Amino acid sequence: MNSLQKRYDALLDLVKRDKDEYVFGQAYTIEELEQLIRMCWDDDEGGVSCVNRGELCKIFLNIRKQKLNEQFTFSQENIFAICRIDEQLKVCCRQLKEDAESEIRRMLERKEKNESMFNFSIHGKIDISVKNSLLENSFHVSENLLHLLTFSLTTNKKTAHSNIVNIEKICQLPIFDFTTNYAGHIGNNCMLPEIAKGFRYKELTDCHIGCAFYKLYRESYLSLQDIVECVNIHSEVRLRYGFSTYDKFSNNQKEQEDL
What pLDDT, on the 0 to 100 scale, is given for residue 48? Predict the structure, then answer.
């Protein structure tokens, strides 16, 4: 057994004993972290250990993100890449919002024609993938990107008066906030001085960073270097919605879903 395998086993044991802080407190190189991450999803032991190695993988991903962000430089090339990816995300968000509003109008028209229809829901998401097998496999373990840029609005019989799906609710969703400049949010809330300083550069404040990029940076395990180098944003927006009808005479509820 090599030394890194022994270290992995020891770190996994710490997680099993709820001593995560000792895992965070150790020194790692990026190369060691990436090898340890691979060990997490190559380890095919099931049961409780499967849960523990998933948690260990998340810890390694967090540490890797922190270390890479510490090394990130705001070169003109990287600033341009941030602005380009942010713009791609905003284009996808605008298209998603437009499609969602169209479907809501259509569903509300159907609801007006059929009084027995009590509820429906609208779901949408922007797909993010990474051109990096290490990260791709790791995100399957952590499910970190699956629900990051999604929304779901539902109205049903019980909450018909308090939770009505309408155009106003779509506009209130953070990912459809196109007025706030999130470059300031990143700069003000970042623990790393160089990152905070970088997002105050004129090129990035003028870029008017959107909420989708902010969430990708803040809530995913991707470092800024990962985002500028290997993020792939699916331009095809898939909107999923469903509705149900309730027959007040037969007291039967019928579910239907459209894709």
Answer: 43
Map out the domains of the chain as residue ranges.
3-71, 76-258
3-state secondary structure 161-226: CCCCCCHHHHHHCHHHCCCCCHHHHHHHHCCCHHHHHHCCCHHHHHHCCCHHHHHHHHHCCCCHHH
| Range 13-37 average pLDDT | 85
Q: Are the beta carbons of 23 and 39 closer than 8 angstroms?
A: no
Per residue in 245-258, is it b (16+ CB within 10 Å) or e — as a string? bbeeeeeeeeeeee
Report which of 46, 45, 44, 59 is spatially closest to residue 14, judged by C-alpha positions. 59
Q: What is the DSSP letter of 87?
A: H
State residue 43's pLDDT score.
67
Q: How far apart are CA 58 and CA 9, in angstroms?
A: 16
pLDDT in tens, 177-228: 899 999 988 877 777 888 989 999 899 999 999 999 999 998 888 899 999 9
Q: Are 37 and 57 in contact (CB under 8 A)?
A: yes
Burial of residue 115 (number of CB atoms within 10 Å: 0-12, 13-18, 19+): exposed
